[in-house]
Write a structure and sequence with these properties.
mainly alpha; 4 helices; elongated
């Protein structure tokens, strides 16, 4: 979530409007998603080459991903990507579950748009409140 919130913070600092900030945040997320979607297996191979030891099969993160997948499928993964998994992580999780590219891209676009607007509007509403204290 820190990575996804950095976009709205930067947009606010650059004095963009909230909708310009939301759009730029979405574009940043979707660039990551598209690149990883089309280069996902290559990225996984590269990461595998640099690992010193084989990753644990079941970590808390993989358990969470499997739990979300079983309950709500790709919609759940896309919903939680900006909050928990990061765009790169959420895309790799979806690819590991063999989600088709059009579905993956559509779901990520929908939920990235929703969270981009929510974070941008929230930050643009919250930051002026802090100006009272300094």
């Amino acid at each position: 979530m820190v990575k996804f919130v950095a976009g709205p913070i930067t947009g606010y600092a650059l004095q963009l409007t909230w909708y310009e900030t939301a759009l730029c945040t979405l574009i940043g997320m979707m660039i990551s998603v598209v690149v990883i979607t089309f280069l996902g297996t290559l990225v996984q191979q590269i990461i595998g080459n640099y690992r010193r030891q084989k990753p644990r099969l079941f970590s808390s993160r993989t358990r969470l991903a499997v739990k979300v997948w079983k309950k709500s499928g790709m919609t759940g993964i896309a919903f939680l990507t900006p909050l928990l998994f990061t765009p790169i992580g959420g895309t790799l999780i979806a690819l590991s579950f063999k989600v088709k590219r059009p579905i993956l891209l559509t779901q990520m676009l929908i939920w990235g748009s929703v969270w981009g607007v929510v974070f941008s509007v929230a930050l643009y509403w919250i930051f002026p409140l802090f100006k009272q204290f300094y």
